Amino acid sequence: MSQRNAILEKLNKRLDRPDDLKAKEAIRTRLQGHSKNLIPKRGTIPQDQQVTLFRKEAEKVNASIVSVSSYDDIPAIVSAYLRQHQLPAQIKIAPDPRLKSLDWTASTSLMVNDGRADGDDPVSVSHAIGGVAETGTLVMTSGPESPTSLNFLPLDHIVVVRADDIAGDYEALWDRIRQTAADQGTPGKLPRTVNWITGPSRTADIEQTLLLGAHGPQRLHIIMIETADTTSPEA
Amino acid sequence: MESMSPEFKNNARGAIANDPLQAALGKLTHGFPKKRAEAAARLPEFDDLRDLARDIKDHVLENLDLYLETYEAKVIEMGGYVHWCSTAQDARETILDICRKADAKTVTKSKSMISEEIAVNRYLEDYGIEAIETDLGEYIIQLRKEPPSHIIAPAIHLSKEQVADTFREAHQDLDASRDLDEPRALLEEARAKLRDKFIHADVGLTGANMLIAETGTNVLVTNEGNADLTNNLPRVHIVLASIEKIVPTLEDASTILRVLARSATGQEISVYTTFCTGPKRPEDLDGPEEYHVVLLDNGRTDMIGSEFHEMLRCIRCGSCLNHCPIYKSVGGHAYGWVYSGPMGAVLIPNLIGMEEAQHLPNASTLCGKCETVCPMRIPLPRMLRKWRERQYKSELGSAKARWSLSAWAWLAKRPALYRPMMNFGIAILGQFGGRGRFKSLPLAGGWTSKRDLAAPAGDTFINQYHNGARGDQSGELMRRGVIK
After folding, report:
1. SS3 helix, strand, coil % of chain A, rounded to 5?
2. Are the Cβ atoms of B136 and A206 closer than 8 angstroms?
3. A37 vs B27, B251, B271: nearest CB
4. ipTM of this complex
5. Which of B301, B329, B354 is the last residue of a domain?
6. Strand B217-222 and strand B210-212: pairing?
7. What's the CA gap between B78 and B329, in Å, rounded?
8. Contacts of residue A152 in chain B, CB cutoff 8 Å?
9. Mind telling me how many Å the CA of A201 is from chain B's nearest CA?
């Protein structure tokens, strides 16, 4: 008997359920329904307050955040950030059309490449699919336009997120991810990676001393696109 | 891993006499409980979420075989492989086999308690494959060839000076006169050393905080980001997880995540929560080409339906360690195996045998704090008592202890004899001790050589109760709706 069957049969015997078929059906229903459990009140406030709460929570965990009214403001903001932290004028951006289509060189002398991170990139710029106000968490999904290595290899990570993509709770983002999968004709399938990112990397493994920048980025800078008309440039 | 659990008593004595360890434990246990209490207070729904988290895992455990089949089917559908392993040796061989097929020279690892359980690092090294721990704490103890002393803060027993010494010895290619006085310098050095390893590793081996049946996903929670570099950069990602890690849906995982970090470090949520599903998609620019899940039993199926069934709800937050007076006194190494604290004292005898771990369930004052803070509401004190009962029944433990217990039980079951004896004894002790403490006492030297014994109040509880000293219970009775 395979180890698989040995384990499953032993479990089945020990659990000794009265009706396996009924249990199976109940599980199928539960998975298909994937109903929400208790959502903390903190996550159910109106959308404009969610943006404020997101900002507060993100700053509390050492992220910095700046609001702009248009995607076109991003190159100047990035350039100022690099100067402020005395970083080389060189960035690796996610090949997201909303970032790629920006005129990076009009007002700056940035060297801009796109693609995955290779370990030598000091700064990356990527786009989140949304944020969760409850804990100031960014949500990123992997894909050809959003390589995951950009989120972790560079020492400085700059993330663009649209204010109207901020939700109160994690569950709202799961709804969105499921909807995207369904729209793409792959219902029920997650991208290879979904990353919840809440502040920059940290450790307290040495004498409980909190240090930022353990293996992931030491700084997390969030650029929030906050405008009444948040149509993205390629739209 | 081989156990040193039979040596608990000696280990504990050594730990109490170890000043640097005591200093480290002091820092740990004052920090985490305070932060947990603050995080819990900030979330009014915290206790309700704990109830839900418990119910989710109870439901999964009641249907574990069905959930495992569902999860497996989904992993395969998403392009991954599932390997079922009954024992530690099966899991070691499976992992070696995957590494060999990938022609792996190096394996990066993020922290996994299961991998400690099966001691996979040494096994891989025996076969010429380098396994590198990447969590900072795990990296430090790997260099020192020590087991973790805390399930979420594995190097918590060390001072920064000890870490500096370890790095000087391990990193001899670096300038010997470099300054390693501050934790920041130590972190920078480890970060630089591990960077190359991350980029050039052939296989990434991670654990899993949860496995999601709905989507065939594994959840990884870290603050450092090391698990992400481990799963994203190498050609092959292996997830090593024990079978009870299943949760039904993404929503259920989210509920449990709301209590995990708050209970562990007092953070609202850990910095990185990662959901990995299968290998990279053809159009993806990064990610592993192969995705393997090694599902390990190693004693869990025997716990299903047993008196220790509920222990399988554990999400390894470490809260019970941080609040345990015994753990706070002796640290994790004294327990002699991978796990420690109250969860270790319940789990270890299940995994390595009651005889081998017989001291651990006795290393508890049964104060109950562990159950109070457990996010999954595991009745740890009750389970510790269960082990003690089993030990008594199977005649483990010293003859003297067993005889004393039998004598006391015999007496306690005979109130007509017990009460006069207690009245007499307590009156005598009360008179000699006044309202203070005994510094020494005949027949109680084992206790009083290390600490004072509080003198009894001079009267028994039953006498005080009969004499009307019942206190005012009206508040409690009103709360319970007995009176208005």
Report:
1. 35, 25, 40
2. yes
3. B251
4. 0.96
5. B301
6. antiparallel
7. 47
8. 225, 228-229, 232
9. 5
How many domains, in total, are found in chain B? 2
Each residue's pLDDT tens digit, B99-109: 999 999 999 99
**pLDDT tens column, B3-35:** 899 999 999 999 999 999 999 998 887 789 999
Report the C-alpha gap between A232 and A5 in whole angstroms: 52
Give domain status of residue B405, yes or no.
Answer: yes
What is d(CA B386, CA B363) in angstroms, rounded to the nearest whole number? Answer: 14
Spell out the CATH class of A45-225.
alpha beta
Put simply, the answer to whether A7 touches B159 (Cβ < 8 Å) is no
The Cα of B141 is separated from the nearest Cα of chain A by a number of Å equal to 11
How far is it, in rounded angstroms, from Cα A12 to Cα A150? Answer: 44
Per the document, the length of chain A is 235
**Domain membership flag for residue B25:** no
The residue ranges of every structural domain in chain A are 1-34, 45-225
Task: Please check whether residue B125 lies inside any domain of the structure.
Answer: yes
Would B315 be classed as within a structural domain?
A: no
Q: Which residues of B touch A27 (CB under 8 A)?
A: 63, 66-67, 70, 213, 248
For B:23-52, CB contacts with A below 8 A are 24, 27-28, 31, 43-45, 48-49, 52
Domain boundary among B301, B332, B351: B301
State which residues form the domain around B453: 400-479
